[in-house]
Automatic annotation (TrEMBL), chain A:
Belongs to the bacterial solute-binding protein 1 family. It comes from the Bacteria. This is Arabinogalactan oligomer/maltooligosaccharide transport system substrate-binding protein. Residues 386-411 are annotated as: Disordered. InterPro entries: SBP. Residues 1-20 form the signal peptide. PANTHER family: MALTOSE-BINDING PERIPLASMIC PROTEIN (PTHR30061), MALTOSE_MALTODEXTRIN-BINDING PERIPLASMIC PROTEIN (PTHR30061:SF50). The keyword Transport applies. PROSITE patterns: PROKAR_LIPOPROTEIN. SUPFAM superfamilies: Periplasmic binding protein-like II. Keywords: Signal, Transport. The lineage of its organism: Bacteria, Bacillati, Bacillota, Clostridia, Lachnospirales.
Automatic annotation (TrEMBL), chain B:
Its main location: membrane. It is a multi-pass membrane protein. It comes from Blautia caecimuris. Residues 80-276 form the ABC transmembrane type-1 domain. Belongs to the binding-protein-dependent transport system permease family. MalFG subfamily. The chain crosses the membrane at residues 20-40, 84-105, 117-138, 206-225, 254-275. This is Arabinogalactan oligomer/maltooligosaccharide transport system permease protein. Keywords: Cell membrane, Membrane, Sugar transport, Transmembrane, Transmembrane helix, Transport. It is found in: Cell membrane.
Length: 411, 290
């Protein structure tokens, strides 16, 4: 008798638990409002009091726009560069909405951890962004995020040393002042090769075409780089030496991105200039330095329990209003096409430098899997030139070796 | 004649001593050099990660002050407390595990003894982080990957495997004569009493060694903390915080504070070692009575 009662009790408890479980999953309704819990991940500056709590404020604004939901926000810290790894590790226990850099897109799509945007959301995103930016978030025809900024590097220079005319050409600049570039960093060095017609995976998406960093056109560039490294007015930027040089005046121009804007402003003050990449003179001809570029975007977790709210929030965080406050609070350079036409933003040299680089002097950084083989060989080329093992005598062979290494899967 | 001989022996000794001391001084300089550099950098007033001079041009305490006051982006005091709590409890549990397992394997004769030692040997050959993702999912299934329970999860991670690291302590226990145990048992001790009242008091050096290693492992670990904390920034340990300071967005403004943090994390280890050193010396000098 006692036993049977216990069994009945247990069945009852189990039933109650499972029912409660269902209730939690489908979202309880209190009155007319639907309870929604959204977990949002962003870099810590977006949530810090010192820089205006952009994320919290934007999320609260979003909640006001949607009175039909009673939203509880849960915030977590994950910067754009590493969010993909966190999400791919365990999508089910990850944020509903997060920010990521577009070169990490395949990490998440491979783990089936990134939702596609379609229908009216995709249309809305497409009308407010340039095709180049959108292209950085499209894989096999599907759109995987709401872009909120472009991600590339450009040039900071001292206006008291270089004129508007000087900064159009690297070699002219080298006659007037000292220039520093992260020569041994393979995010920067390929810009010279790409400028002289070297290509990566066809238009950047066709893995089968491979990398073309070989032949006469690449060897010419290697020869140019050997001379560049030997130029007394050129300094190799490593471990922050470029920025330190700007501070003490020994260096007059560096190549970096928007993350260093405040430090450069502090170092140069009124003389701070920012511009798209210059050309360089190769055998008498002007060639355009061409950077890798990408974007940062807001992604949505396909395992989100409140899909509609999550997608709406992502679109809101990437909207013109949110991008404007992001720009005002944290200098995050907007990419919304309507916003870029507004006067104060169009007048900001930092914004025009970055977007000019993105539109004119860059290629989309390929995110095919084989791109992973392309970093170390270029870095080794930079180091080889620095330490003198790559010379004019063996430059052709060394360049071919680099090309071969970039095209091989071996380590 | 005799005086001359005496003098030459003295000179010889002087020359020998000079050579030894100079070479020791050079080696000491090389070893201490990086540490001095980190300490100097932590007091450096110039910003940025790169400086062209070895000695800072001006000194300041601001880097330390910044660590404890500028908590909006990287909350160092909280990370420090998190790590201290985790390391303290891991240390207690892991020390007990290690010593208990070592005692059993050294003193008790049971069937699984040999197989267990072989198994531990083989398991010890695999790097711990191989099982990292599996550990994460097990902890998640147990509900330990959210909020403050992350600390419990990390304590479990750091102390759970301690029973496999018994080799050194067991080797030490083996040197204590069995006759001591037998005498204690004749006097009416249980196995537990033999362990706590006879073996442990005779093994201070190895206890000190175990405590030190058990404290340092969680104090310095990065990889498990990173995988288990994920986006919960309020649970970050110091290792994650210091790593964050070197990311490209922060490195320029946080580099000198990073050095300050590196100096600060060495303090608890130094204190622990200084406190334990006394017993360490006592243990070595008071040899085991046979």
């Amino acid at each position: 008798m006692g036993k049977r009662r216990t069994v009945l009790l247990m069945v009852g408890v189990l039933a109650a638990v499972s029912l409660a479980g269902c209730g939690g999953a489908s979202g309880e309704k209190t009155g007319a409002k639907e309870k929604v819990r959204l977990m949002v991940w962003s870099p810590s500056e977006d949530q810090s009091k010192d820089s205006g709590q952009w994320l919290q404020n934007s999320c609260e604004d979003f909640a006001e726009l949607h009175p039909e939901w009673d939203i509880t926000f849960v915030y977590g810290i994950a910067d754009e560069a590493t969010a993909a790894n966190q999400v791919a590790q365990d999508p089910v226990a990850s944020a509903d909405v997060f920010m990521y850099a577009n070169d990490t897109l395949t990490i998440m799509t491979d783990a089936n951890a990134l939702a596609k945007f379609g229908g009216k959301y995709r249309e809305e995103i497409e009308t407010t962004n340039s095709p180049e930016v959108l292209e950085s978030l499209v894989k096999d025809g599907d759109l995987y995020g709401v872009p909120f900024t472009t991600n590339t590097w450009f040039m900071y220079y001292d206006k008291s040393v270089f004129s508007e005319e000087d900064i159009k050409n690297l070699d002219t600049m080298l006659e007037k002042g000292t220039v520093s570039l992260p020569f041994t960093n393979s995010w920067y060095l390929p810009s010279f090769y790409i400028g002289n017609g070297c290509t990566l995976f066809g238009d950047g998406t066709d893995e089968s075409q491979g990398v073309d960093f070989g032949g006469e056109k690449a060897a010419e560039v290697t020869d140019y780089l050997i001379d560049l490294a030997a130029n007394p007015n050129f300094e190799i930027d490593a471990d922050g030496s470029g920025l330190a040089g700007l501070r003490d005046g020994s260096i007059n121009a560096i190549f970096s991105g928007s993350w260093d804007a405040n430090a450069v402003k502090e170092a140069l003050g009124e003389n701070m200039g920012a511009a798209a990449l210059p050309t360089y003179t190769l055998n008498g001809q002007k060639k355009q330095m061409t950077a890798y570029a990408g974007s940062k975007a807001i992604g949505v977790n396909p395992y989100s329990k409140n899909m509609v709210a999550a997608v709406e929030l992502a679109v809101y965080l990437g909207s013109a209003d949110a991008q404007r406050t992001h720009y005002e609070l944290r200098n995050v350079i907007p990419c919304n096409t309507e916003l870029l036409e507004e006067e104060d933003i169009a007048a900001d040299s930092l914004v025009s430098a970055q977007n000019d680089t993105f539109n004119r002097t860059s290629i989309l950084q390929p995110f095919v899997a084989k791109m992973n083989n392309c970093w170390v060989p270029v870095e080794n080329m930079g180091k080889g030139i620095r330490n003198g093992s790559v010379t004019h005598e063996n430059s052709l062979q060394q360049t071919e070796d680099m090309n071969e290494a970039m095209n091989s899967d071996g380590i | 004649m005799a005086a001359a001989k005496y003098k030459s022996a003295k000179t010889k000794r002087f020359v020998n001593n000079t050579i030894v001391h100079v070479s020791l001084a050079i080696l000491a300089f090389i070893w201490v050099f990086p540490i001095v550099w980190v300490v100097l950098t932590s007091f450096r007033a110039e910003k940025g990660s790169y400086v062209s001079t070895f000695l800072p041009r001006s000194y300041t305490l601001d880097n330390y002050i910044k660590l404890f006051t500028d908590t909006s982006i990287l909350n160092f005091p909280r990370m420090f407390m998190n790590t201290l709590i985790i390391a303290f409890f891991s240390c207690l549990i892991a020390t007990f595990y290690t010593l208990a397992v070592s005692y059993c394997l050294s003193r008790l004769k049971f069937k699984l003894r040999k197989p267990y030692m072989n198994m531990a040997m083989i398991l010890g050959l695999f790097p711990g982080f191989m099982s990292m993702v599996a550990v994460y999912f097990i902890l998640k299934a147990a509900g330990l990957t959210e909020g403050n329970l992350i600390r419990v999860a990390l304590i479990l991670c750091y102390s759970g495997g301690a029973g496999l690291g018994f080799q050194i302590a067991k080797g030490f226990f083996d040197t204590i004569p069995y006759a001591v145990d037998e005498a204690a048992i004749l006097d009416g001790c249980t196995k537990w009493q033999v362990f706590t009242k006879v073996t442990l008091p005779l093994s201070k050096p190895i206890i000190v060694y175990t405590v030190l290693t058990a404290f340092m492992a969680p104090w310095l670990d990065f990889i498990f903390a990173k995988v288990i904390c994920r986006a919960n920034s309020d649970q970050y340990t110091i290792a994650i915080g210091l790593w964050k300071m070197l990311e490209k967005e922060y490195i320029d403004s946080w580099y000198t504070s990073f050095a300050a943090g590196a100096v600060l994390i060495s303090i608890p280890i130094a204190i622990l070692f200084l406190c334990m050193q006394k017993y360490y010396v006592d243990g070595v000098s008071g040899a085991v009575k046979g």
